[in-house]
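Milestone M4 deliverable, item 7.
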Amino acid sequence: MNRLLLEGLSDAIGFIGGALAGYWVGTLFGLDIFEAGYSNASIGGIVLVGLGGGIGLQLARKWRAARKKDK
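Output delivered:
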């Protein structure tokens, strides 16, 4: 597979997967990012989505680095 295509797809999958995980964790704690206005609950949910996306992206990059070492 083309190196750049693999990099782009793995980054996208890691970010989206992490953001969804952050959303689900926020929903589990009652934090709704789609709540009207900017309440503490909606800001907390937005923060969890951002953190989840960042963590997912970093995990995808670590996966690629580990895959590269095996070759």
